[in-house]
Amino acid sequence: MYFMQRRNFLKTSGIFSLGFCASRFNVIAGPFAPGELGYAIPEDKKLDPHWVKSLYNRGDVTRYLKSKNELQYIGMPVGGITTGTVYLGGDGRLWLWDIFNDNREGVQPKEVEWDSDVLGGGKKVRSRDGASYVKPAKNGGEVEQGFAFKITVGTKTMIKKMEASDWDEIIFEATYPMAKIHYIDKLLPLEITADVYSPFVPLDDKNSSIPATIYSFHFKNKTSESINISVLGWLENKVCLTSAKQTDTRCNTVIEGKFAGVEGSIKNKEIIQKQAADLGTMGIAALTGNAKIQTDFSLPVTEKSFLVSNIVPVEKNPDEKLLAAITITLMVKPRSEKKAHFVIGWHFPHLTLDAVIKDKGRNYNNWFKSSKEVLQYVNDNFDNLSSASNLWKETWYNSTFPWWFLERTFVNTSTLATTTAHRFETGRFYAWEGVGCCQGTCTHVWQYAQAMGRIFPSIEKNTREHVDLGLSLQPDGMIWYRGECAKSPAIDGQAGTILRILREHQMSADDRFLKKNWEKIKTAVQFVITQDRNKDGMEDTPLENTLDAVWDGEISWLVGLCIAAVKAGEVMAKEMNDEEFAAICGEYVAKGRKNMETELFNGEYFIHRPDAIKGRKNLGSYNTSHIDQVFGQSWAHQVGMGRILDKDKTVSALRALWKYNFTPDVGPYIKIHKGGRPYALAGEGGMIMNTNPKNEDRPYGESQTWQLGYFHECMSGFEHQVASHMMAEGLTDEAMILTRMIHDRYHAAKRNPFNEIECSDHYARAMASYGTFITACGFEYHGPKGYIKFAPKINPENFRAPFIAAQGWGTYTQVQAPEKTISEIQVKYGFLKITAFCTEVLHTVSEIAVISKGKKIAASFKQVGNNCIVQLLSPGIITTNQKISIKCI
Questions:
Q1: What is the largest CA-CA distance in the chain?
Q2: 769-777 and 403-411 helices, crossing angle to 10°
Q3: 322-337, pLDDT tens digit by residue?
């Protein structure tokens, strides 16, 4: 028999309260008799209904504990987006330090030994195959950095380093983009916490792209006498990490100004002239002028370390450690609190990637010319940067959604703060699929990533204009799927890019983006239409797809994506008053939908119809259950296009995925089906990419190539896509369970919670998780029209969640009863232009009331099914800290 084990938490009280589950390992599914496993996936999942119900509990922030050995793998990215990778470890120290432009593959490039037959006989696992999944990287790195506290209470003095071994307990709160770490000593009458982050403000890509990490320490004196605290922070100068020679000298110099800081650099004319990739500067500062500075600091930390001050410039050879340190001293009065702020910054602007890419350098070099300027900017703007970042954290997590759900759907946004994602000095965004692996901002991967387009839409718009509709667009409308790195199309990437164009238009304040690019957009849509060789509305031209193959025939997930893309073309054409092209698109969509539902639906799920001539000669999904089979409809929900496929057939397909592809324990499946990469292991749940419910012989075709291994994997980006779609279609239990399975696979006791892995670390496709948040809110938005909709799928009777619009963000709340629905939109940052509002109601609406700034606003309404659409007679602007209330009675 097989039992599913799931990691849960010990529930206690106060600061140690860890959520809603009862024990570290609980059996939540099964038991299953051998006959119930069928082809190793049970049709009846036998999930504990109490566990399923618990997934909806609000719970509490996820806290990882030293005492449970949950800190060693934590690596939360805490640098600015597109500025490199710096990890925050579980005990608060920084590690990894992938800021030196060495273009490594994987967070710690390696090939690990793994004693398992899952790969089909191989024991070597590369970074791109899941090395960090089976043997996660541990806290450690190239740069020496840390903090220490000297605490004096009365006549007693204690020195505590910010290292796990120095504390009875350390608690790490996993709230990206700002972690909170608690340091606990049973004998210490002082609460110490650290908020560690890089400034992160949705819609503000500049201030979210600062190459810096902030430490904000908070000290709370619990005694009746004053406590003296000295905080010592240090940083090693590792400029020219790999290119430095013994004849070079690294230098530390004091930064003059209103704050205390030291900048590290190097002296070498040859390196400077060649602009070596790792040439730059790095520094540390305390945001106060009252501090002791050490340009030449040495470990270990002693009481004397806090007293030394040496401010003369110092130089050392690369084989000697050169550290800088800053000390500040505070006196915390009885029953009172104080804060201290430190900043670590870096500036390594000489980024060069693939030789075919002409863009070079880092975008932050447009704003800063050294780490000194980075530190100065953070100091000068600290109040705004810290308050806006804190405001976003509070806005995101102050929701009625479960804490774990908010964490998992947002955490993959941290991929933008790793070396998966870059931005050149020209402003061009460029990304790998995962860290250092698979170049060219691949369209068929990045189309899954919903996060950036919603949180930093200006970056996505820039990418659409300058890459997809710029250097990649060909005269026939074909878009190179890896930019200049692969001058060919991928049909799913092409379709997804068109859908992203619609999303970027909707996330704009006006229609200038659409108008400016319309003729190019038309050619891209037309290219999709022309790939339908037999003119039945179902794409059938063999082209590359995201499973790294060229498939023949009519494939449901590709056909559906193309239908969705052409539908997006129709929507945009109508907005452009291009009725002729809208009609062309409409005809394709209608024909494609009819034929897809008739020809590719087998009565239970959508399939791959073989090519009439080639048959099943080549690899394909054929009569199997493929994870992306209704991806086109999933995309339609993300951009508010309504139905492109019949609801009953779509839901049937999703239920088939649950029945045939989801398992609460992948162990039995991967024991039989070998060759897949290890992204889920025995004892862990997930959704298998492609399964064979009909038990056919050679179900994936006659030519079983290496890509077949993909079919037996659990790739989280695809799983998030399905979860978001299930949420949109009302399969909320299934969506929550699948998302929770991924969340638990990345529990800190097993591996890094911030690193969802596919082809290398921090894989871009995993940002599909944000799409599950979008559909859970029932969020639709059209900035140029001033239209916004919420239709919560979880707790609609008492709902609160964040939202991001084109020019502002804030909180939406809703109270719903059988006879009325009261909605409120509060803007926390920027402003919201609103002309029309829509929500789902449970009753027939007879009247509405719209209140803003204490005044009733003239509006009309209409009800279409359960949707109540409120139209303001004059467009309204809701500014920061203002609200608008809508009552549907």
A1: 89
A2: 130
A3: 999 999 999 999 999 9
Report d(CA 691, CA 694) in Å as an integer: 9
Q: How many CB atoms lie within 10 A of CB 171?
A: 23
Q: How far apart are CA 668 and CA 40, in angstroms?
A: 5
Q: Where are the alpha helices (DSSP H) in 15-156?
A: 49-54, 131-134
Beta bridge partners of 152: 157, 228
Q: Is the pTM of this model over 0.90?
A: yes
User: Secondary structure of 559-625 in the HEC alphabet?
Assistant: HHHHHHHHHHHHHHHHHCCCHHHHHHHHHHHHHHHHHHHHHCECCCCECEECECCCECCCCCCCCCE
Residues across the chain: 889
Alpha carbons 877 and 323: distance in angstroms, whole number: 52
Query: In this structure, are strands 820-840 and 787-790 parallel, antiparallel, or unpaired?
Result: parallel
Helix (H) or strand (E) holding 331: strand 323-332
Say how far apart CA 482 and CA 472 lie, in whole Å.
Answer: 8
Sequence-distant (≥ 6) Cβ neighbours of residue 498 within 8 angstroms:
521, 524, 525, 528, 565, 566, 568, 569
Spatial contact of 139 and 91, defined as CB atoms under 8 Å apart: yes
**pLDDT (tens digit per residue) in 588-636:** 999 999 999 999 999 999 999 999 999 999 999 999 999 999 999 999 9
d(CA 325, CA 295): 7
> Is the bond preceding residue 42 a cis peptide, omega within 30 degrees?
no
Secondary structure string (H, E, C) spanning 399-423: CCCCHHHHHHHHHHHHHHHCCCEEE
Q: Average pLDDT in the 265-269 region?
A: 86
Supply φ then ψ for residue 389, to 5 degrees. -65, -45
Q: Does residue 811 carry a pLDDT above 60?
A: yes
Amino acid at residue number 258:
K
Phi, psi for residue 849 in degrees, rounded to 5: -145, 130
Which conformational region is residue 786 in: left (phi greater than 0), alpha (psi within -120 to 50 degrees), or beta? Answer: left
Give which of 24, 117, 95 is closest to 64, Cα–Cα.
Answer: 24
Count Cα neighbours of 687 within 13 Å in the Cβ-side half-sphere: 30
Our separate counts of H helices and E strands in the chain read 19, 43
Buried b (16+ CB within 10 A) or exposed e, 352-370: ebeeebebebbbbbeebeb
Q: DSSP states of 3-52 as a string?
A: EEEEE-----SGGG---S--SSEEEEEEEE-GGGGTTTS-SS--B-HHHH
Continuous segment of H or E residues that includes residue 522: helix 512-530
Query: HEC string of 488-513?
Result: CCEHHHHHHHHHHHHHHHHCCCCCHH
Output 608-613 pairs: Cβ under 8 A, ≥24 positions apart.
608/551, 608/553, 608/554, 608/555, 608/556, 609/553, 609/554, 609/555, 610/552, 610/553, 611/540, 611/552, 611/553
- Tokens standing for 272? 């400077």
Q: Is 739 helix (H, G, I), strand (E, B) or coil?
A: helix
**Coil, strand, or helix at residue 476?**
coil
Rounded-to-integer distance, Cα 475 and Cα 594, Å: 31
Helix (H) or strand (E) holding 172, with range, is: strand 169-173
- Are the C-beta atoms of 861 and 848 separated by less than 8 Å? yes
Tell me the per-residue pLDDT of 419-448, one tens digit each, with 9 for 90 and over. Answer: 999 999 999 999 999 999 999 999 999 999
Span between the terminal Cα atoms of the chain, in Å: 55
> Residue 18 above 60 pLDDT?
no
Residues whose CB is less than 8 angstroms from the CB of residue 544 and which lie 6 or more positions away in sequence, other chains included: 444, 481, 488, 489, 490, 491, 493, 550
pLDDT of residue 108: 87
